[in-house]
Amino acid sequence: MKNTLFDKVWDAHVVQDIKDGPQVLFIDRHFIHEVTSPVAFLGLKSRGIGVLHPERTFATADHNTPTINQHLPVEDPLSANQLKALEENANEYGISHWGLGHEKNGIVHVVGPENGITLPGATIVCGDSHTSTHGAFGAIAFGIGTSEVEMVLATQCIMQPKPKRMVINVNGGLGKGVTPKDVALYIISKLTTSGATGFFVEYAGNVFRDMSMEGRMTVCNLSIEMGARGGMIAPDDKTFAYLKDRMHTPKGDAWDKAMDYWNTLKTDEGAVFDKIYDFDAADIEPMITYGTNPGMGIGISQCIPNADDVEGGEATYKKSLSYMDFNESDEMIGKKVDYVFIGSCTNGRIEDFRAFASIVKGRKKADHVTAWLVPGSHIVEDKIKEEGLLDIFSEAGFVLREPGCSACLAMNDDKVPAGKYAVSTSNRNFEGRQGPGSRTLLASPLVAAAAAVTGVVTDPRILL
Prior knowledge:
Strand order of the largest sheet: 5-4-3-6-7
Strand content: 15-25%
Helix content: 25-40%
Distance between the termini: 49 Å
Number of helices: 17
Largest sheet: 5 strands, parallel
CATH topology of the largest domain: Aconitase, domain 3
Structural class: alpha/beta
CATH class of the largest domain: Alpha Beta
Radius of gyration: 21 Å
Number of domains: 2
CATH architecture of the largest domain: 2-Layer Sandwich
C-alpha cells in the first residue's frame, strides 16, 4: 500500500480506534507555556492525577513575557501570575522549565527546534495554534485546547479525528526578494483562510526542498492560517544536518538508528491525496496584506481588489477595508507606516534578522517609525550580536529587544496604538491583534525592513 508522509507518521502513533469516533494518538513531545497550562494543572490537582511522562513535556515562558526589562518584575499582574504558575507547576511535576532569565528561554516554536526537541516522525502538541511550525521537520504537530493539554499531561495521548490529506506543490524559481513568508502568504491568498479546513498539508516541490530549515518553519507555521490542522515537509539531508548534535537529539548509535527510520519518512510514489494544489513559483512576488485576515494579501506591486473580485461577501469585505481605512483599487506602495515589527514564531529566527539587516545596512530608520526587533530566543539574540547584526541595527537607529511573544498579541506594554499601521512579520492581522484599534500589515522581513527605513510600504526589490 502506498502511503503519504502524513499517513506514515499518524498511523504509527495510533493507540486505539474508537468506533464511529476519533482515534487515540500517542504524543511524543508536549510543549507548554504560561497561558494555556495553569488551568490544565488545576484540573489534574482537582482529580488527584499526576503527569504521566514529565520527561516528554517541555515548558518555556513566552506569551506573557515583556520584550524589554526582563530582569525586572513583570508589572502586569495577570502575566506575572501566569508566569509564576508555570514555574511552580513545572517544579512540582518535574517538568523541564525555561523561564525568564534562562539561557534557553524563548518562543516555544523557536526553542523547540533549535534545541533538538523537535524530531522527524514525532507527534507534537502545544496549547498554541502555531504548533504547526514543527512540521518543517517531518513531524505531525498541531495546537490543542486547555482541556486537551490536561489530557496529554495525564495520559500522554489525545483523541483526534484523522484529518484528510492535502499536498501543495510549488515548483520553479523564486524571483528576487521573494522569501518563504511570501510563498506562504501567496498560498493563503489563493486558498483563503478556510481553504484547508479539515486537512493536514504536505508541502512539496523544489521550492520547499530548496528552502532552509528556518524557511520551512515559516511556511509550516502559517498552515493554520488557511484552516489546516497542520503542515509538514518531508525530512532530508538539510533536516538531519540542522538537527545533528543539538541538545536533545539522539547521539551515537541512537542517532544511526533514528536516521534509519527518518529516511523512510517520505510520501510513496503513487500515494493518494484527497486534494492537490499546484503553484508556479514565478507567479509569486513580495507579498503584503491589506485587510483583517491573512488571506487578504496581494503582491506588493498590485492594487487592493474590488469587492466584486473577492469571495466571502461584499459587506464583510468592505467592513474590513473600513477598519483598515483603505479603499478598493488603492495601491499599497506608498502607504504610511507607523510601526514595524520583526519577530514572533513566524519570523523571529536568525535568518530573518540577517534578511532585515541586508536592507537596513547603511541606511537609517525613518524618524516617525517605531520599530520592535524581537529575537525568538536568547540563542537568536546571541547570534545577532556575534554576527555583527546588532552593530548594523544600532548604526541604523534600531534597538534590539528581548525574546517573547507579547508584541505579536499585544501583551504588557507591547501594543500598537489605535489607528496606527504596523508592518508585521507575524502571522495574524485580525482586528486589534497588536493592540485595540491597531492596523496590521503582514509581510516578510525584507518588506518590513524596507518600510522601516522609508516610512512607507515599499517594494524591497528596489533596495536590494
